[in-house]
Each structure stands twice: as structure tokens, then as C-alpha cells.
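Quick one, C-alpha cells below:
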């Protein structure tokens, strides 16, 4: 079933929906461990997910038709700060989980996770992290027990 997600920025990003309990378990037990390993392999300690309503695709980013440049300040660099002691600029890298493999053109050598990134002066500020929908569905089928009236 395809359902409209009308409060989102992008027209190109597909969403996968599970009931509340299933969604939480998939996120905590399947997706977040993959994300943690991906960032650990890259030596990145400070990272945050982008709110799903703010997800964009490569088409939004490359065409600038959907996403204006200030999008990066208001949604990706929103937590940028200057450390007083060192004067160093820091911010958590933002990421989104993407179900469209066409968006990702790189493979992490350590985790084999497909991804792509948006750079600011050669520094990654945003990652598209691909998770195969078949893997998600397999996880749900093999690890989630049906519960009455929970989803």
C-alpha cells in the first residue's frame, strides 16, 4: 500500500511504516546498531538522525528545486556551535536512513553499508545511509511476534 506523507519536504523519499511497537523495535534492534557501527567505522562520535519530515533525496539536493540552500542551516547544521576554549567549530553529523539504493554511490569498507554524503569544504555534514528494505522485512518476520492490540 502506498500512503501519502503530506508533511514532508521531499516528493522523492519513500517511507516504510510499521505500528508503534514494531517500529520502535526495528529502530532499536536493527537500524540503530547498523548506524552505530557505520559511524564508529568512520571515527564519528557525534551524529543525529534527521527528523523524517525533513528527509531529502539526492534529487532534492542536486536540483535545488525542492530544497533551498538555507535548508542546510535550519536542518543539518542546526546544532552548530563554537567551542569557547579552542575556538573550534563543532556540530553533530546528521543522517537519514534511505530505502532507495540509487541515492547511495559509496560502500563503507568496514561495514559494507551503502551510503552517500554531503560535504562542506571536504568535511561530511550529512549522510544518506541505505538500509535494504528486504533486510528490514526479514528482521520483522523473524524477530517480531504478533501482539494483540499493540500496533
Amino acid at each position: 500500500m502506498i500512503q501519502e506523507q503530506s508533511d514532508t519536504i521531499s516528493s522523492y523519499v519513500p517511507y516504510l511504516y510499521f505500528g508503534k511497537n514494531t517500529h520502535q523495535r526495528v529502530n532499536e534492534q536493527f537500524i540503530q546498531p547498523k548506524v552505530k557501527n557505520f559511524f564508529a567505522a568512520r571515527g564519528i562520535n557525534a551524529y543525529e538522525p534527521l527528523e523524517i519530515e525533513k528527509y531529502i533525496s539526492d534529487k532534492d539536493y542536486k536540483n535545488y528545486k525542492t530544497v533551498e540552500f538555507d535548508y542546510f542551516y535550519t536542518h543539518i547544521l542546526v546544532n552548530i556551535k563554537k567551542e569557547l576554549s579552542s575556538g573550534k567549530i563543532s556540530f553533530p553529523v546528521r543522517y537519514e536512513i534511505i530505502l532507495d539504493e540509487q541515492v547511495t554511490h559509496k560502500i563503507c569498507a568496514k561495514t559494507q553499508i551503502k551510503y552517500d554524503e554531503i560535504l562542506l569544504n571536504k568535511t561530511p555534514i550529512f549522510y544518506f545511509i541505505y538500509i535494504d528494505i528486504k533486510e528490514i522485512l526479514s528482521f520483522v518476520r523473524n524477530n517480531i511476534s504478533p501482539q494483540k492490540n499493540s500496533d
